[in-house]
Each structure stands twice: as structure tokens, then as C-alpha cells.
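Progress note, project year one: complex with guanosine-5'-monophosphate.
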Amino acid sequence: MSSIFSKIVKGEIPSYKVAETEDFFAFLDINPLAQGHTLVIPKKEVDYVFDLDEETYTGLWTFAKKVGKAVESVVPCKRIGITVIGLEVPHTHIHIIPINSIYDMDFKRDKLKFSAQEFHSVANKISKAYNKL
Ligand code: 5GP
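Model obtained:
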């Protein structure tokens, strides 16, 4: 069975897309810790990041760097925090989170709520910034 993220890549489940290449996809986290909290995934469905083949693994991090720079240019923050957890969705993903302090990376915190319009607007801005890099 396809993972929820594979369904997002195929457009079977809606998402706020930020960027896409032949092998990778980036979209806003639906329960964000910060505005612009983005998930970066390989289209190839592999649960655990260390089980990715070498080319996909390095390609994923290169893609994440570009997406992270785009997020950073749109959302005011001290820097981008990145983390891989993967306990909820069994499809490798890197969290890209604009942060101002260590507490902004605390996944136990209440998640932020944004309207569809707000999600859409920030995704568009990040997407435009990504396309200029
Ligand atoms: P993890 O597997 O790293 O613990 O967390 C999975 C992340 O995926 C969570 O931050 C959660 O909010 C996000 N997530 C789960 N389901 C969906 C979904 O259907 N759409 C989007 N955009 N994000 C999701």
C-alpha cells in the first residue's frame, strides 16, 4: 500500500507543494511547528533514511539545502533547523523548520494552526524563492 506521502506526490491527497524535481518533492507540514515548516521527501518510498541508496540519500540532502534556503529567504528566522524523525509516517522525510531558539524544534509543543489561504500564500512564496535559486 502506498504511503500517505506517495499519495501526496501522485496528487491523490492534496498538499501545499513547495518544490519538485524528478526524484524529490517538498510540501508544507500540515501540523507545523512554525510557519514555513516544510517536509522534503524522495519520491521513492523508503521508510528509513539510512536505507536509501547512496544517490537518493545525497540527492535528498542537496534538494533539502535548496528548499531550506528558499524557506529561510521567506520566513524571518535565525536559521533553519533540520531533523529526521519518521516515527509517524513510514516514508523518509526531512523536516525543514525556521527557528529562533531550540524550543522551536520541540515536537511536543502544540502545533500551529493556519488557514488554507495562509498555507497557500507561504507555499507560493517559498516556491517562487526556490525557482530563483
Ligand atoms: P514524523 O514521521 O517525522 O514523526 O512526522 C510526520 C510529519 O508529517 C508530522 O509533522 C505530520 O504533521 C506530517 N504529516 C502527517 N500526515 C500529513 C499529511 O497528510 N499531509 C502533510 N502535509 N503533512 C502530514
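The mean pLDDT is 97.
The CA atoms of residues 33 and 111 lie 5 Å apart.
No further modelling is planned for this target in the current period.
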